[in-house]
Amino acid sequence: MTISVVLAEDQGMVLGAFAALLRLEPDLDVVATATDGHKALAAVLEHDPDVLVTDVEMPGISGLDVAAALRRDGHRARVVIVTTFARSGYLRRAMDSGVAGYVLKDAPIDQLVGVVRRVHAGERVVDPQLAMAAWDSADPMTDRERDVLRLAADGLPNGEIAARLHLAEGTVRNYLSTAITKLGVRNRIEAARLARDRGWL
Predict the structure, then answer these.
(1) Where are the beta strands (DSSP E) in the chain?
(2) Which residues are in the HTH luxR-type domain (predicted)?
(3) Phi then psi for 53, rounded to 5 degrees?
(4) In whole numbers, what is the pLDDT of the chain averaged over residues?
(5) In the chain, which residues have pLDDT < 50?
(6) Superfamily of domain 3-135, CATH level 4
(7) Phi then psi for 76, rounded to 5 degrees?
């Protein structure tokens, strides 16, 4: 049985190397590659692969957003995240998005191949190093606090954040204040930086 794969990675050299190495495997068929999140989603919808192997951070939408969209639409493709970021927040978001595999880019290619085969067989596979990090660092913020902080990190003033999220401006201030307190920082800029560093945004 051949496992069809769509591969998404925004760095051209890495994408080419991954594609070439996966194509050496007799049971893997790389049917398409993509260099950003929107193209990855389009490639999955066009080619209907068994597995999507994707980076987390890409132009457009992230690999986690792609995984969430596929899950929301009930697509059958199993998603494997391959990333340089050993961030516990990313792993937790990946699990919430229905991701089936999560491995680091510095893992041997044989490990990635094994993960693709295992998730295709119905398993969920997480790098042990990442699993330990997830246990050690829980995201203290609520979904709403995260939404507000994400927009604040993009430089939006409270009034515009309130309009986008259909909230009162005072409520936005409260969410920001609570997030800042929970993260133990001095202001929204430091809160956003810390949350991004830990993969919570």
Answers:
(1) 3-8, 28-34, 51-54, 78-83, 101-104, 125-126
(2) 134-199
(3) -105, 120
(4) 88
(5) none
(6) Response regulator (3.40.50.2300)
(7) -80, -15
